[in-house]
Amino acid sequence: MSVIDVTDLRKTYGGRAAVDGVSFTVEEGEIFGILGPNGAGKTTTVECVEGLRVPDAGRVRVTGLDPVADHEEVARVLGAQLQQSALQPKLTVREALELYASFHPHPADWRPLAERLGLAPKLTTRFAKLSGGQKQRLFIALALIGNPRVVVLDELTTGLDPRARRDTWELIEDIRAGGVTVLLVTHFMEEAQRLCDRIAVIDKGRVAALDTPAGLIRRSAGATVIGFSPSAPLDDRDLAALPGLASVQHKDGRVTLSGTDETVNAVITLLARARVTAHQLRVTDATLDDAFLDLTETTA
Fold first, then answer.
1. CATH number, domain 2-211
2. pTM as predicted
3. Chain centroid to CA 1: how far?
4. How far apart are CA 5 and CA 49, in angstroms?
5. Residue 299 pLDDT level (bands cut at 50, 70, 90)
6. 20 to 30 Å CA-CA from 220: which of 22, 51, 100, 148?
7. CATH superfamily of this structure's domain 218-298
8. Where are the alpha helices (DSSP H) in 127-260?
9. CB crowding 154-178: b at 16 or more within 10 Å, else e
10. C-beta of residue 4 within 8 angstroms of C-beta of residue 183
């Protein structure tokens, strides 16, 4: 069952299309990622889902409701952490939780929510004194305090250190385990690959691809990466002729090829024929980074 339906969404600013025919659905219980470079139209898309912006054309539904026409009803089922979030510097964690709880007719009990998110020891701490990770935990709590069916998290881990980022990833997984559908907007490939069931890659206002992380990687032109330092130079013409080859890169005496399993066998044959030793040979699967670069470059 889909809880978010977006069909041919369009939004233009000053004659430039920020969102140009975006379509996707989010199924109940999944973590759905929207991935793309800065300025791709990710935030505009989710702001239309949240009812913060009025689409120029297309159709958006959240649990069957129109986010603009049925804004109050949508606000009861959808929680959101915005890309640019801030609170009054002197507001304490307790005051923020109590204030946001008062906005909802049937709010969650903020006390166990604060405990679950590690905020219980910080209830009397003012917002300005919280660390970056603690602020993000607070914003998650505020997004969940209305007992939503769906929560939108926009660039949630930007600016966090690696430990705080990984802690936040665990919280997102816990949110889904608690029965909440998550719409996650990010430009961190590792984050999307770890968390998301499916991903829409948005580039220049359009959906460049929509698939599981593994599916996006398989669709990449170079799903296998071969790296080695040759004992002697190789002829670029021989490398270019390798079957299944997607790209060749030379850096600091190391050759990196992206291609297919066929490319691996062919390069080993080439090295043997040329009597060249491959030092520090590594063969790895491509990552979401590789797929993302391939997808966005081909839509340039």
1. 3.40.50.300
2. 0.78
3. 22
4. 9
5. very low
6. 22
7. YebC, transcriptional regulation domain (3.30.70.980)
8. 132-144, 162-177, 189-195, 213-219, 236-240
9. bbbbeebeeebbebbbebbeebbee
10. yes
